[in-house]
Amino acid sequence: MKRETVARMGAGMTVLLFPYVGVYTVIPLLPMIPLLAIFLAERKTRVLSASLASLLLLSYGLFLLSFGLRSTDIELPLYLVAVSFVAPTFGALAAGASGIFRDLGRSLVYLATTTAVGVLAIIWTGPPAIGADPERVLFLATLGGLSGAFLHSASKRGERDFAVPFGSCMVMWLFSFDYPLPDIQYMAGIYVFALALGIGAYRMKAADAEAVISMVIVCLLVIFFADIVWFLILLSFYLLGSGFTRYKYARKQKLRIAQSRGGVRGYKNVYSNSLVPLAMAILYGVYGSDLFAFAFLGSVATATGDTLASEIGETARSRPRMITTFRTVEPGVDGGVTLLGQTASICGSLFTGILAVAAGMAGAWGIAAALAGGFLGTNFDSLLGATFQARGLLTNNGVNLVATLFGAVVGAAVWMMV
Protein backbone atom coordinates (compact mmCIF):
# COMPACT_ATOMS: atom_id res chain seq x y z
CA MET A 1 0.00 0.00 0.00
CA LYS A 2 1.37 3.41 -0.95
CA ARG A 3 2.46 5.79 1.77
CA GLU A 4 0.12 8.48 0.41
CA THR A 5 -2.84 6.08 0.70
CA VAL A 6 -1.93 5.21 4.29
CA ALA A 7 -1.51 8.91 5.10
CA ARG A 8 -4.93 9.78 3.65
CA MET A 9 -6.57 6.96 5.56
CA GLY A 10 -4.87 8.16 8.73
CA ALA A 11 -6.13 11.71 8.15
CA GLY A 12 -9.65 10.39 7.69
CA MET A 13 -9.44 8.22 10.83
CA THR A 14 -8.72 11.28 12.98
CA VAL A 15 -12.47 11.87 12.91
CA LEU A 16 -12.66 9.18 15.60
CA LEU A 17 -10.95 11.62 17.98
CA PHE A 18 -13.43 14.46 17.37
CA PRO A 19 -15.73 13.69 20.32
CA TYR A 20 -12.79 14.45 22.61
CA VAL A 21 -12.33 18.00 21.26
CA GLY A 22 -13.63 20.62 23.64
CA VAL A 23 -12.89 23.21 26.28
CA TYR A 24 -12.71 20.81 29.20
CA THR A 25 -10.68 18.01 27.60
CA VAL A 26 -7.08 17.34 28.64
CA ILE A 27 -5.83 17.95 25.10
CA PRO A 28 -8.41 20.29 23.46
CA LEU A 29 -7.18 19.72 19.91
CA LEU A 30 -6.27 16.04 20.11
CA PRO A 31 -6.72 15.33 16.33
CA MET A 32 -4.00 17.90 15.58
CA ILE A 33 -1.36 15.44 16.79
CA PRO A 34 -1.88 12.77 14.08
CA LEU A 35 -2.39 15.49 11.46
CA LEU A 36 0.95 17.00 12.39
CA ALA A 37 2.57 13.56 12.18
CA ILE A 38 1.05 12.97 8.74
CA PHE A 39 2.19 16.41 7.59
CA LEU A 40 5.79 15.61 8.57
CA ALA A 41 5.78 12.01 7.32
CA GLU A 42 4.25 12.32 3.83
CA ARG A 43 5.03 15.23 1.53
CA LYS A 44 2.15 14.51 -0.89
CA THR A 45 -0.48 15.03 1.82
CA ARG A 46 0.92 18.19 3.38
CA VAL A 47 -1.66 20.47 1.78
CA LEU A 48 -4.44 18.12 2.88
CA SER A 49 -3.12 17.88 6.45
CA ALA A 50 -2.74 21.66 6.69
CA SER A 51 -6.24 22.24 5.27
CA LEU A 52 -7.88 19.79 7.66
CA ALA A 53 -5.96 21.24 10.60
CA SER A 54 -7.09 24.74 9.59
CA LEU A 55 -10.73 23.66 9.52
CA LEU A 56 -10.34 22.09 12.93
CA LEU A 57 -8.78 25.27 14.30
CA LEU A 58 -11.53 27.37 12.73
CA SER A 59 -14.24 25.22 14.30
CA TYR A 60 -12.52 25.26 17.68
CA GLY A 61 -11.88 29.02 17.51
CA LEU A 62 -15.50 29.80 16.68
CA PHE A 63 -16.58 27.41 19.43
CA LEU A 64 -14.47 29.30 21.95
CA LEU A 65 -15.89 32.59 20.68
CA SER A 66 -19.44 31.31 21.03
CA PHE A 67 -18.60 29.76 24.43
CA GLY A 68 -17.08 32.99 25.74
CA LEU A 69 -19.56 35.40 24.16
CA ARG A 70 -23.00 33.97 24.78
CA SER A 71 -24.56 36.61 22.51
CA THR A 72 -23.05 35.20 19.29
CA ASP A 73 -24.44 32.32 17.23
CA ILE A 74 -21.42 32.03 14.92
CA GLU A 75 -20.29 28.44 15.17
CA LEU A 76 -18.91 25.88 12.70
CA PRO A 77 -20.24 22.55 13.98
CA LEU A 78 -17.58 19.89 14.40
CA TYR A 79 -19.75 17.27 12.67
CA LEU A 80 -19.58 19.30 9.44
CA VAL A 81 -15.81 19.39 9.70
CA ALA A 82 -15.94 15.61 10.13
CA VAL A 83 -17.64 15.16 6.75
CA SER A 84 -15.08 17.47 5.15
CA PHE A 85 -12.40 15.11 6.52
CA VAL A 86 -14.17 12.13 4.96
CA ALA A 87 -14.55 13.54 1.42
CA PRO A 88 -10.86 13.96 0.41
CA THR A 89 -9.79 10.80 2.23
CA PHE A 90 -12.20 7.85 2.18
CA GLY A 91 -14.28 9.26 -0.68
CA ALA A 92 -11.27 9.92 -2.87
CA LEU A 93 -9.58 6.61 -2.05
CA ALA A 94 -12.73 4.56 -2.75
CA ALA A 95 -13.03 6.18 -6.18
CA GLY A 96 -9.37 5.54 -6.96
CA ALA A 97 -9.06 9.28 -7.38
CA SER A 98 -5.53 10.20 -8.27
CA GLY A 99 -6.74 12.67 -10.88
CA ILE A 100 -9.82 14.19 -12.44
CA PHE A 101 -12.83 11.89 -12.85
CA ARG A 102 -13.11 11.16 -16.56
CA ASP A 103 -16.34 9.23 -16.19
CA LEU A 104 -19.47 9.57 -14.10
CA GLY A 105 -18.94 6.22 -12.37
CA ARG A 106 -16.02 7.45 -10.27
CA SER A 107 -17.98 10.53 -9.22
CA LEU A 108 -20.87 8.34 -8.08
CA VAL A 109 -18.52 6.08 -6.08
CA TYR A 110 -17.03 9.20 -4.47
CA LEU A 111 -20.54 10.49 -3.68
CA ALA A 112 -21.80 7.19 -2.26
CA THR A 113 -18.72 6.62 -0.09
CA THR A 114 -18.62 10.16 1.28
CA THR A 115 -22.36 10.13 2.01
CA ALA A 116 -22.31 6.73 3.75
CA VAL A 117 -19.20 7.40 5.85
CA GLY A 118 -20.31 11.02 6.33
CA VAL A 119 -23.57 9.88 7.93
CA LEU A 120 -21.57 7.78 10.41
CA ALA A 121 -19.19 10.69 11.03
CA ILE A 122 -22.05 13.09 11.81
CA ILE A 123 -23.67 10.62 14.22
CA TRP A 124 -20.30 9.93 15.89
CA THR A 125 -19.22 13.55 16.31
CA GLY A 126 -22.49 15.47 16.51
CA PRO A 127 -24.71 16.19 19.51
CA PRO A 128 -27.56 13.77 20.34
CA ALA A 129 -30.08 16.15 18.72
CA ILE A 130 -28.49 15.84 15.27
CA GLY A 131 -28.44 12.04 15.54
CA ALA A 132 -32.17 12.07 16.27
CA ASP A 133 -32.83 13.98 13.02
CA PRO A 134 -32.08 11.42 10.26
CA GLU A 135 -33.36 13.72 7.49
CA ARG A 136 -30.87 16.45 8.37
CA VAL A 137 -28.02 13.97 8.78
CA LEU A 138 -28.68 12.48 5.34
CA PHE A 139 -29.15 15.90 3.73
CA LEU A 140 -25.89 17.31 5.05
CA ALA A 141 -23.87 14.15 4.32
CA THR A 142 -25.23 14.01 0.76
CA LEU A 143 -24.51 17.70 0.26
CA GLY A 144 -20.94 17.13 1.46
CA GLY A 145 -20.56 14.19 -0.92
CA LEU A 146 -21.94 16.09 -3.90
CA SER A 147 -19.87 19.22 -3.32
CA GLY A 148 -16.77 17.12 -2.62
CA ALA A 149 -17.17 15.07 -5.81
CA PHE A 150 -17.72 18.20 -7.87
CA LEU A 151 -14.78 20.10 -6.39
CA HIS A 152 -12.47 17.12 -6.77
CA SER A 153 -13.21 16.94 -10.48
CA ALA A 154 -13.32 20.68 -11.15
CA SER A 155 -10.14 21.58 -9.22
CA LYS A 156 -6.57 21.24 -10.41
CA ARG A 157 -4.45 18.57 -8.73
CA GLY A 158 -2.40 21.08 -6.74
CA GLU A 159 -5.54 22.81 -5.46
CA ARG A 160 -7.71 19.76 -4.76
CA ASP A 161 -6.58 18.98 -1.22
CA PHE A 162 -7.50 22.53 -0.20
CA ALA A 163 -10.61 23.08 -2.33
CA VAL A 164 -12.41 19.84 -1.42
CA PRO A 165 -12.31 20.02 2.40
CA PHE A 166 -12.86 23.78 2.61
CA GLY A 167 -15.42 23.92 -0.20
CA SER A 168 -17.53 20.99 0.97
CA CYS A 169 -17.44 22.27 4.56
CA MET A 170 -18.55 25.75 3.57
CA VAL A 171 -21.41 24.40 1.42
CA MET A 172 -22.67 22.23 4.29
CA TRP A 173 -22.28 25.12 6.73
CA LEU A 174 -24.30 27.38 4.44
CA PHE A 175 -27.25 24.96 4.58
CA SER A 176 -26.91 23.83 8.20
CA PHE A 177 -29.52 26.27 9.53
CA ASP A 178 -32.77 24.98 10.96
CA TYR A 179 -35.09 24.40 8.03
CA PRO A 180 -37.93 21.83 7.80
CA LEU A 181 -36.96 18.96 5.52
CA PRO A 182 -39.30 16.34 4.01
CA ASP A 183 -39.44 12.86 5.52
CA ILE A 184 -36.58 10.51 4.77
CA GLN A 185 -38.58 8.31 2.36
CA TYR A 186 -39.42 11.32 0.19
CA MET A 187 -35.82 12.49 0.36
CA ALA A 188 -34.57 9.08 -0.76
CA GLY A 189 -37.01 9.15 -3.68
CA ILE A 190 -35.78 12.60 -4.72
CA TYR A 191 -32.16 11.41 -4.57
CA VAL A 192 -32.98 8.51 -6.88
CA PHE A 193 -34.93 10.83 -9.19
CA ALA A 194 -32.08 13.36 -9.38
CA LEU A 195 -29.42 10.73 -9.99
CA ALA A 196 -31.55 9.00 -12.64
CA LEU A 197 -31.94 12.30 -14.50
CA GLY A 198 -28.22 12.97 -14.27
CA ILE A 199 -27.24 9.51 -15.48
CA GLY A 200 -29.73 9.84 -18.34
CA ALA A 201 -28.25 13.20 -19.37
CA TYR A 202 -24.75 11.73 -19.20
CA ARG A 203 -25.63 8.69 -21.31
CA MET A 204 -27.35 10.90 -23.89
CA LYS A 205 -24.16 13.00 -24.01
CA ALA A 206 -26.09 16.10 -22.97
CA ALA A 207 -23.81 16.75 -19.97
CA ASP A 208 -20.41 15.69 -18.69
CA ALA A 209 -19.71 14.23 -15.23
CA GLU A 210 -19.12 17.61 -13.58
CA ALA A 211 -22.33 19.02 -15.07
CA VAL A 212 -24.31 15.99 -13.87
CA ILE A 213 -23.13 16.42 -10.26
CA SER A 214 -23.93 20.15 -10.54
CA MET A 215 -27.44 19.42 -11.82
CA VAL A 216 -28.05 16.97 -8.97
CA ILE A 217 -27.04 19.63 -6.44
CA VAL A 218 -29.39 22.16 -8.04
CA CYS A 219 -32.19 19.59 -8.25
CA LEU A 220 -32.03 18.65 -4.56
CA LEU A 221 -31.87 22.21 -3.28
CA VAL A 222 -34.67 23.51 -5.51
CA ILE A 223 -36.99 20.63 -4.57
CA PHE A 224 -36.23 20.73 -0.84
CA PHE A 225 -36.55 24.52 -0.50
CA ALA A 226 -39.39 25.08 -2.97
CA ASP A 227 -41.16 22.17 -4.67
CA ILE A 228 -40.64 19.52 -7.32
CA VAL A 229 -42.79 21.60 -9.69
CA TRP A 230 -40.17 24.35 -9.52
CA PHE A 231 -37.47 21.93 -10.56
CA LEU A 232 -39.60 20.53 -13.40
CA ILE A 233 -39.87 24.08 -14.77
CA LEU A 234 -36.09 24.45 -14.52
CA LEU A 235 -35.71 20.99 -16.05
CA SER A 236 -37.71 22.18 -19.07
CA PHE A 237 -34.90 24.66 -19.73
CA TYR A 238 -32.29 21.88 -19.60
CA LEU A 239 -34.32 19.70 -21.98
CA LEU A 240 -35.14 22.45 -24.46
CA GLY A 241 -31.57 23.74 -24.37
CA SER A 242 -30.12 20.30 -25.01
CA GLY A 243 -32.66 19.53 -27.73
CA PHE A 244 -32.27 22.75 -29.68
CA THR A 245 -28.48 22.65 -29.39
CA ARG A 246 -28.73 19.73 -31.82
CA TYR A 247 -31.20 21.59 -34.05
CA LYS A 248 -29.61 21.89 -37.51
CA TYR A 249 -26.29 21.07 -35.88
CA ALA A 250 -24.62 20.27 -39.21
CA ARG A 251 -25.48 23.73 -40.53
CA LYS A 252 -24.11 25.34 -37.36
CA GLN A 253 -20.92 23.33 -37.73
CA LYS A 254 -20.57 24.53 -41.30
CA LEU A 255 -20.93 28.12 -40.11
CA ARG A 256 -18.49 27.34 -37.23
CA ILE A 257 -20.97 28.51 -34.60
CA ALA A 258 -22.00 25.12 -33.18
CA GLN A 259 -21.58 24.29 -29.50
CA SER A 260 -18.28 22.56 -28.81
CA ARG A 261 -18.04 18.87 -27.82
CA GLY A 262 -21.19 18.02 -29.77
CA GLY A 263 -23.34 20.10 -27.45
CA VAL A 264 -22.24 18.37 -24.23
CA ARG A 265 -22.81 20.85 -21.39
CA GLY A 266 -20.27 21.54 -18.66
CA TYR A 267 -20.72 22.70 -15.10
CA LYS A 268 -20.08 26.35 -16.00
CA ASN A 269 -23.11 26.32 -18.29
CA VAL A 270 -25.23 24.68 -15.57
CA TYR A 271 -24.30 27.17 -12.85
CA SER A 272 -24.34 30.29 -15.03
CA ASN A 273 -27.97 29.57 -15.98
CA SER A 274 -29.13 27.97 -12.71
CA LEU A 275 -27.56 29.93 -9.86
CA VAL A 276 -30.16 32.72 -9.94
CA PRO A 277 -33.17 30.36 -10.16
CA LEU A 278 -31.61 28.30 -7.36
CA ALA A 279 -31.20 31.40 -5.19
CA MET A 280 -34.83 32.38 -5.82
CA ALA A 281 -36.03 28.90 -4.84
CA ILE A 282 -34.03 28.98 -1.60
CA LEU A 283 -35.27 32.48 -0.75
CA TYR A 284 -38.84 31.34 -1.40
CA GLY A 285 -38.32 28.42 0.97
CA VAL A 286 -36.96 30.71 3.68
CA TYR A 287 -39.35 33.67 3.32
CA GLY A 288 -42.36 32.19 1.51
CA SER A 289 -43.02 35.29 -0.63
CA ASP A 290 -44.44 34.93 -4.14
CA LEU A 291 -42.05 37.69 -5.20
CA PHE A 292 -39.34 35.03 -5.40
CA ALA A 293 -41.63 32.72 -7.39
CA PHE A 294 -42.12 35.43 -10.04
CA ALA A 295 -38.39 36.18 -9.98
CA PHE A 296 -37.71 32.47 -10.47
CA LEU A 297 -39.96 32.43 -13.52
CA GLY A 298 -38.28 35.52 -14.97
CA SER A 299 -34.81 33.99 -14.58
CA VAL A 300 -35.74 30.56 -16.00
CA ALA A 301 -37.58 32.21 -18.89
CA THR A 302 -34.45 34.27 -19.63
CA ALA A 303 -32.27 31.16 -19.71
CA THR A 304 -34.79 29.36 -21.93
CA GLY A 305 -35.49 32.30 -24.21
CA ASP A 306 -31.81 33.13 -24.65
CA THR A 307 -30.87 29.52 -25.45
CA LEU A 308 -33.64 29.18 -28.02
CA ALA A 309 -32.86 32.59 -29.50
CA SER A 310 -29.23 31.54 -29.99
CA GLU A 311 -29.72 27.97 -31.16
CA ILE A 312 -32.64 28.72 -33.50
CA GLY A 313 -31.78 32.30 -34.46
CA GLU A 314 -28.31 31.29 -35.67
CA THR A 315 -29.92 29.16 -38.37
CA ALA A 316 -31.89 32.09 -39.85
CA ARG A 317 -31.37 32.78 -43.54
CA SER A 318 -31.27 36.52 -42.94
CA ARG A 319 -28.09 38.02 -41.53
CA PRO A 320 -28.24 39.05 -37.87
CA ARG A 321 -28.07 42.69 -36.83
CA MET A 322 -26.05 44.07 -33.96
CA ILE A 323 -28.40 45.03 -31.14
CA THR A 324 -26.53 48.30 -30.46
CA THR A 325 -26.11 49.62 -34.04
CA PHE A 326 -28.54 47.51 -36.11
CA ARG A 327 -25.78 46.90 -38.63
CA THR A 328 -25.59 43.45 -40.19
CA VAL A 329 -22.98 41.10 -38.72
CA GLU A 330 -21.86 37.51 -39.26
CA PRO A 331 -23.83 34.69 -37.57
CA GLY A 332 -22.52 33.87 -34.13
CA VAL A 333 -21.18 37.37 -33.39
CA ASP A 334 -21.91 38.38 -29.78
CA GLY A 335 -24.80 40.84 -29.71
CA GLY A 336 -26.25 39.82 -33.07
CA VAL A 337 -30.03 39.32 -33.18
CA THR A 338 -32.49 38.06 -35.80
CA LEU A 339 -36.26 38.14 -36.15
CA LEU A 340 -36.28 34.34 -35.95
CA GLY A 341 -34.26 34.49 -32.74
CA GLN A 342 -36.58 37.08 -31.20
CA THR A 343 -39.58 34.91 -32.07
CA ALA A 344 -37.87 31.87 -30.54
CA SER A 345 -37.17 33.87 -27.39
CA ILE A 346 -40.84 34.82 -27.04
CA CYS A 347 -41.94 31.22 -27.60
CA GLY A 348 -39.46 29.89 -25.04
CA SER A 349 -40.53 32.48 -22.46
CA LEU A 350 -44.22 31.77 -23.07
CA PHE A 351 -43.58 28.06 -22.69
CA THR A 352 -42.04 28.64 -19.25
CA GLY A 353 -44.97 30.78 -18.13
CA ILE A 354 -47.66 28.45 -19.47
CA LEU A 355 -45.94 25.45 -17.87
CA ALA A 356 -45.88 27.26 -14.51
CA VAL A 357 -49.60 28.06 -14.73
CA ALA A 358 -50.49 24.53 -15.87
CA ALA A 359 -48.51 23.05 -12.97
CA GLY A 360 -50.24 25.33 -10.47
CA MET A 361 -47.10 27.20 -9.45
CA ALA A 362 -48.47 30.61 -10.45
CA GLY A 363 -51.64 32.25 -11.68
CA ALA A 364 -52.17 33.92 -15.04
CA TRP A 365 -49.80 36.74 -14.10
CA GLY A 366 -47.03 34.15 -14.04
CA ILE A 367 -47.20 34.10 -17.84
CA ALA A 368 -46.67 37.87 -17.89
CA ALA A 369 -43.68 37.55 -15.54
CA ALA A 370 -42.11 34.83 -17.68
CA LEU A 371 -42.78 36.62 -20.96
CA ALA A 372 -41.50 40.01 -19.79
CA GLY A 373 -38.55 38.57 -17.89
CA GLY A 374 -37.58 36.16 -20.64
CA PHE A 375 -37.85 38.56 -23.57
CA LEU A 376 -36.18 41.50 -21.83
CA GLY A 377 -33.60 39.24 -20.21
CA THR A 378 -32.71 37.69 -23.57
CA ASN A 379 -32.18 41.08 -25.18
CA PHE A 380 -30.22 42.26 -22.14
CA ASP A 381 -28.02 39.20 -22.68
CA SER A 382 -27.44 40.32 -26.29
CA LEU A 383 -26.65 43.84 -25.11
CA LEU A 384 -24.08 42.51 -22.64
CA GLY A 385 -22.64 40.35 -25.41
CA ALA A 386 -22.24 43.33 -27.71
CA THR A 387 -20.56 45.44 -25.05
CA PHE A 388 -18.94 43.70 -22.06
CA GLN A 389 -18.35 40.32 -23.68
CA ALA A 390 -17.03 41.81 -26.91
CA ARG A 391 -14.46 43.76 -24.89
CA GLY A 392 -13.44 40.73 -22.87
CA LEU A 393 -14.91 42.05 -19.62
CA LEU A 394 -17.36 39.16 -19.31
CA THR A 395 -17.31 35.59 -20.55
CA ASN A 396 -20.37 33.97 -22.09
CA ASN A 397 -21.11 32.29 -18.76
CA GLY A 398 -20.78 35.61 -16.96
CA VAL A 399 -23.22 37.17 -19.41
CA ASN A 400 -25.70 34.33 -18.80
CA LEU A 401 -25.48 34.81 -15.04
CA VAL A 402 -26.05 38.58 -15.18
CA ALA A 403 -28.86 38.22 -17.74
CA THR A 404 -30.76 35.66 -15.63
CA LEU A 405 -30.43 38.03 -12.66
CA PHE A 406 -31.89 40.81 -14.81
CA GLY A 407 -34.76 38.52 -15.85
CA ALA A 408 -35.41 37.73 -12.17
CA VAL A 409 -35.62 41.46 -11.38
CA VAL A 410 -38.12 41.94 -14.23
CA GLY A 411 -40.20 39.01 -12.99
CA ALA A 412 -40.17 40.43 -9.45
CA ALA A 413 -41.19 43.84 -10.83
CA VAL A 414 -44.25 42.24 -12.48
CA TRP A 415 -45.26 40.77 -9.12
CA MET A 416 -44.88 44.15 -7.43
CA MET A 417 -47.08 45.82 -10.05
CA VAL A 418 -49.90 43.31 -9.70
Automatic annotation (TrEMBL):
Its main location: membrane. NCBIfam families: TIGR00297 family protein. Keywords: Membrane, Transmembrane, Transmembrane helix. InterPro entries: DUF92_TMEM19 (IPR002794). The keyword Cell membrane does not apply. The chain crosses the membrane at residues 20-40, 47-67, 79-101, 108-125, 184-202, 270-287, 350-378, 398-417. It is found in: Membrane. It is a multi-pass membrane protein. Belongs to the TMEM19 family. It comes from Candidatus Methanocrinis alkalitolerans. The keyword Transmembrane helix applies. It comes from the Archaea. This is TIGR00297 family protein. Signal peptide: none annotated. Pfam families: DUF92.
